[in-house]
């Protein structure tokens, strides 16, 4: 879909763009779901690379998980995003396919062992709301990458938002100390803007906090299709569009 920004400007209306640096919400313990399933498939042949491009959490891999970080790839394909794991440059736990990929509407890719700390946030960054302001957020987090070009013309599909929300609900049910959900942009505002202004954080938050708010098509899809093969790209590019400097 093409964003309607130009239309708003033409009509002389004020457009208040969402600021991804503000994307954050808490996960209240009293609302924790009991058991949530996700439709996921391991990205082909990625397990050895995922093991190399990750580290021990250095703590209980269930009790030690406290936050989920939402990213967007700044690329156009799952294969391009996954290439950073194969290349040892960065890693993340799940990858949500784009509209033009055969997996879209069916399942998300698992791209790193949940028990391992993936490399999706710079080690030096911190935020007072995340793990009492301690650094090395990768040790205590799960990372979700959504395939999106991070251009005003590239909106997120409903399914991408729903699938991402279901992953968070799955994690919320599984990890008893999961406290919050945060954007990469909020954690590293000088270098990152993902998942970007087009990501509908409000709707995403409602889907996470109240699964009954809107139906999730994610739960009913079962199809299996072949992986689209495309040239490698980078995930989490910076705002200048240059290749990601590790994360
Ligand atoms: Zn990111």
Protein architecture, described:
The protein has 247 residues and is an alpha/beta fold. It has a single domain (24-220), classed as Peptidoglycan recognition protein-like (Lysozyme-like). The protein has helices at 5-10, 47-52, 78-86, 158-174, 184-187, 201-209, and strands at residues 24-26, 40-42, 54-56, 67-72, 94-96, 108-110, 116-118, 141-146, 180-183. Helix 4 (158-174) crosses helix 6 (201-209). The protein starts with a helix and ends in a 38-residue tail after the last helix. Mean pLDDT is 86; it is low at 1-14, 214-234 and 238-246. The protein binds zinc ion. Residues 71, 184, 192, 194, 236 line the site of zinc ion.
What attributes characterize this protein structure?
247 residues, alpha/beta, Lysozyme-like, seven-stranded mixed beta sheet, 9 strands, 14% strand, disordered N terminus, disordered C terminus, binds zinc ion
Summarize the structure.
The chain has 247 residues and is an alpha/beta fold. 21% of the residues lie in helices and 14% in strands. The protein has six helices and nine strands, in the order H-E-E-H-E-E-H-E-E-E-E-H-E-H-H.
């Amino acid at each position: 879909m093409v964003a309607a920004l130009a239309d708003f400007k033409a009509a002389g209306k004020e457009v208040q763009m969402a600021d991804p640096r503000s994307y954050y919400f808490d996960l209240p313990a009293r609302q924790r779901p009991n058991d949530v399933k996700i439709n996921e498939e391991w990205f082909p042949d990625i397990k050895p690379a995922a093991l190399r491009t990750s580290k021990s959490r250095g703590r209980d891999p269930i009790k030690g998980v406290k936050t989920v970080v939402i990213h967007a790839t700044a690329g156009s394909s799952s294969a391009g995003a996954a290439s950073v794991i194969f290349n040892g440059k960065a890693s993340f736990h799940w990858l949500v396919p784009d509209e033009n990929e055969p997996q879209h509407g069916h399942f998300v890719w698992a791209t790193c062992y949940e028990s391992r700390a993936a490399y999706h946030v710079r080690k030096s960054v911190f935020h007072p709301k995340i793990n009492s302001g301690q650094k090395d957020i990768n040790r205590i987090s799960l990372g979700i990458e959504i395939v999106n070009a991070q251009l005003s013309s590239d909106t997120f599909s409903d399914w991408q938002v729903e699938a991402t929300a279901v992953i968070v609900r799955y994690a919320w049910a599984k990890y008893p100390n999961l406290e919050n959900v945060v954007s990469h942009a909020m954690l590293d505002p000088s270098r990152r803007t993902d998942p970007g202004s087009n990501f509908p954080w409000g709707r995403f938050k409602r889907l996470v906090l109240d699964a009954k708010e809107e139906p999730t098509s994610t739960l009913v899809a079962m199809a299996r299709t072949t992986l689209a093969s495309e040239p490698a790209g980078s995930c989490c590019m910076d705002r200048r569009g240059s290749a990601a400097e590790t994360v």
